[in-house]
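Sample intake — Restriction endonuclease subunit S
Collected from: Thioalkalivibrio versutus
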Amino acid sequence: MSFPKYPEYKDSGVEWLGEVPAHWAVVPVRAFVEERDERNDQGIGDYLSLMAGRGVLPYAEKGDVGNKKPEDLSKCKIVEEDDLVINSMNYGIGSYGISRYRGVCSPVYIVLTAVPGAALPRYALRVFEEKTFQRLAQSFGQGILAHRAAIGWHDIKNLRIALPPWDEQERLSQFLDHETGKIDALIEEQRRLIELLKEKRQAVISHAVTKGLDPNVPMKDSGVEWLGEVPAHWGVVSLSRVLSGIDQGWSPAAEAFPALAGDWGVIKLSAIRTGQFVEGNNKKLPDDVVPDSGIEIHAGDLLVTRANTPELVGDACVVRNEPEARLIFSDLVYRLKISGNVTSRFLCYVLLSDVGRAQLQADARGSSMSMAKISHGHIKSCLIPLPPVEEQNSISSRIDQELAAISTLTSAGEQSIGLLTERRSALISAAVTGKIDVRGWATGTGQEEHELPMVAEESVGYSAQGGAA
């Protein structure tokens, strides 16, 4: 997609902006938005939440994630319709948006309103979406993590931005709403496809470990209501019958960076990810810590998380290759020691299947279900279908093959989302910094049918006719 450049430019005097259209103003942020710092002495009861990627929404629509609604709303900030709300700690990861509601929000949020006659709310949002501006604003924040450094109105109010005339703000807002809407629709389509692939992945595992690979094999009632029929030559046993022991790990104090090859480290919970062992998700042990070699991880080990959120507790993986680093598992992880009549790969897939997940989640306990736990006894009491070992190997190999194909498609979808997100950012940047002239744009023109560029360039990314962007 290409658009003409403006006929004349000037030096903005601002490094991140570069040259801007000659007739645009270069103003501090406070000239086009101002802070609304009104406390809730009116008794407004509609509490608003802010979620990255979704913007401002009523608390009831947020779901059971993130911060909870405070009991006392009197200290909350008032939000009016069309106000721009920014999470002061998560601005850099997309936690901001225009409010379609009147209500109140967390007192740590920044609430901004467009200066009447100076800026349109929609255009103000687009300026705050510009990634270079975000990085600049975030650089003034205070905090340990750069992407979560808290910023305040005093940090951003004097930053300078390019401000076009009112009529151009309207056209730019219309243009960006239309074009980003198309990109957002493509991103959502890819996300739906990825969700369908996740469902297919789960179905492949669950069907194979409970019904086998031969559709014509005689079946029998398993005697377990939720398991249904299984192949007639299979058994159904408790895990205690196929385990020779369960090891629990250890969580010593560790460094904030991963172990290198040959160094000792302890894995994070995220190292166990739906059947995959992610070796890099570990923390190096300090040199003065004596490692416990008895819980060192080796190829063939079957690891299960014993504590996590209810959705993730009991996640399992088999370590397929010997780790390069010398890793131990933490006290939030079990290592299942299996007997000769079950393979680690097959048992892992059973635990990941619908029947395995249902049992582990049903047995999970905890004072706070944000961190549910499963015990040795819960694991040993799980019932599993048990085919002959040779058939277990065949089933596991077939699952490996089908999951590899699903993983390839999923990776392609994720790559498409990444490219589309870059395109979206590049388009916004080009528009709000004046690198493209869309005054002649209108929906239904041939321009909107042009193919988007494959990769967004840093800071601009969308070219203008007559020169590189």
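Post-analysis note: The CA atoms of residues 45 and 71 lie 10 Å apart.
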